[in-house]
Specification:
By secondary structure, this protein is mainly alpha-helical. It contains six helices and no strands. Helix 2 packs antiparallel against helix 3 and helix 3 packs antiparallel against helix 4. The chain is globular, with a radius of gyration of 14 Å. 28% of the residues are buried.
Length: 110
Protein backbone atom coordinates (compact mmCIF):
# COMPACT_ATOMS: atom_id res chain seq x y z
CA UNK A 1 0.00 0.00 0.00
CA UNK A 2 1.59 3.22 -1.11
CA UNK A 3 0.93 6.33 0.90
CA UNK A 4 0.80 8.91 -1.86
CA UNK A 5 -1.36 11.47 -0.08
CA UNK A 6 -0.17 14.44 -2.14
CA UNK A 7 -1.06 12.62 -5.37
CA UNK A 8 -4.53 11.82 -4.04
CA UNK A 9 -5.34 15.34 -2.81
CA UNK A 10 -6.76 16.78 -6.07
CA UNK A 11 -9.07 13.79 -6.48
CA UNK A 12 -10.20 13.85 -2.86
CA UNK A 13 -10.78 17.60 -3.02
CA UNK A 14 -12.92 17.14 -6.13
CA UNK A 15 -14.90 14.43 -4.35
CA UNK A 16 -15.63 16.80 -1.45
CA UNK A 17 -16.63 19.53 -3.91
CA UNK A 18 -19.06 17.16 -5.65
CA UNK A 19 -20.41 15.68 -2.42
CA UNK A 20 -19.82 18.10 0.46
CA UNK A 21 -22.16 16.16 2.73
CA UNK A 22 -20.24 12.90 2.53
CA UNK A 23 -18.45 11.92 5.75
CA UNK A 24 -16.19 9.40 4.01
CA UNK A 25 -15.03 11.95 1.43
CA UNK A 26 -14.37 14.52 4.15
CA UNK A 27 -12.51 11.97 6.30
CA UNK A 28 -10.22 10.84 3.49
CA UNK A 29 -9.62 14.42 2.37
CA UNK A 30 -8.84 15.51 5.94
CA UNK A 31 -6.43 12.61 6.46
CA UNK A 32 -4.61 13.35 3.21
CA UNK A 33 -4.35 17.04 4.11
CA UNK A 34 -3.02 16.21 7.57
CA UNK A 35 -0.52 13.71 6.20
CA UNK A 36 0.83 16.34 3.80
CA UNK A 37 1.19 18.91 6.60
CA UNK A 38 -1.80 21.09 5.75
CA UNK A 39 -3.34 21.14 9.23
CA UNK A 40 -5.24 24.39 8.58
CA UNK A 41 -7.35 22.75 5.87
CA UNK A 42 -7.34 19.28 7.45
CA UNK A 43 -9.04 20.33 10.68
CA UNK A 44 -12.36 21.50 9.18
CA UNK A 45 -12.55 18.47 6.89
CA UNK A 46 -12.05 16.09 9.81
CA UNK A 47 -14.55 17.99 11.96
CA UNK A 48 -17.11 17.84 9.12
CA UNK A 49 -16.56 14.10 8.71
CA UNK A 50 -17.35 13.50 12.36
CA UNK A 51 -20.31 15.91 12.39
CA UNK A 52 -21.78 14.24 9.31
CA UNK A 53 -21.07 10.62 10.19
CA UNK A 54 -21.12 10.54 13.99
CA UNK A 55 -19.47 7.71 15.88
CA UNK A 56 -19.16 5.67 12.67
CA UNK A 57 -16.50 8.24 11.75
CA UNK A 58 -14.82 8.40 15.16
CA UNK A 59 -11.51 7.85 13.34
CA UNK A 60 -11.72 11.57 12.51
CA UNK A 61 -11.32 12.31 16.23
CA UNK A 62 -8.18 10.18 16.37
CA UNK A 63 -6.70 12.16 13.48
CA UNK A 64 -7.74 15.42 15.14
CA UNK A 65 -5.93 14.24 18.28
CA UNK A 66 -2.72 13.86 16.27
CA UNK A 67 -3.24 17.19 14.52
CA UNK A 68 -3.86 19.10 17.77
CA UNK A 69 -0.92 17.38 19.45
CA UNK A 70 1.37 18.51 16.62
CA UNK A 71 0.07 22.04 17.14
CA UNK A 72 0.63 21.74 20.91
CA UNK A 73 -3.11 22.30 21.50
CA UNK A 74 -3.16 19.65 24.18
CA UNK A 75 -6.56 20.56 25.62
CA UNK A 76 -8.22 20.11 22.22
CA UNK A 77 -6.23 16.94 21.60
CA UNK A 78 -7.49 15.52 24.90
CA UNK A 79 -11.09 16.44 24.01
CA UNK A 80 -10.81 14.73 20.63
CA UNK A 81 -9.27 11.61 22.16
CA UNK A 82 -11.99 11.49 24.83
CA UNK A 83 -14.63 11.56 22.10
CA UNK A 84 -12.86 8.79 20.21
CA UNK A 85 -12.63 6.58 23.30
CA UNK A 86 -16.28 7.24 24.13
CA UNK A 87 -17.34 6.27 20.62
CA UNK A 88 -14.98 3.29 20.26
CA UNK A 89 -14.55 1.86 23.78
CA UNK A 90 -13.48 -1.51 22.38
CA UNK A 91 -10.51 -0.17 20.42
CA UNK A 92 -7.71 -2.75 20.73
CA UNK A 93 -5.34 0.08 21.69
CA UNK A 94 -7.73 1.61 24.25
CA UNK A 95 -5.36 1.09 27.18
CA UNK A 96 -2.52 2.84 25.39
CA UNK A 97 -4.85 5.60 24.23
CA UNK A 98 -6.07 6.16 27.79
CA UNK A 99 -2.44 6.53 28.89
CA UNK A 100 -1.96 9.08 26.10
CA UNK A 101 -5.08 10.90 27.30
CA UNK A 102 -3.59 11.24 30.79
CA UNK A 103 -0.42 12.73 29.25
CA UNK A 104 -2.41 15.14 27.10
CA UNK A 105 -4.44 16.33 30.09
CA UNK A 106 -1.22 16.87 32.07
CA UNK A 107 0.34 18.81 29.18
CA UNK A 108 -2.80 20.97 28.86
CA UNK A 109 -2.50 22.22 32.44
CA UNK A 110 -0.86 25.63 32.78
Amino acid sequence: RQQRYADALPFLERGVQLQPVNPNANLLYGIALAMTGNDVRAEPALVRAYEQGGKTYAMAQLHLTRLYTRQKKYDRAAEALELYLRDVPGDPNAESLRATLVKLRAAARP
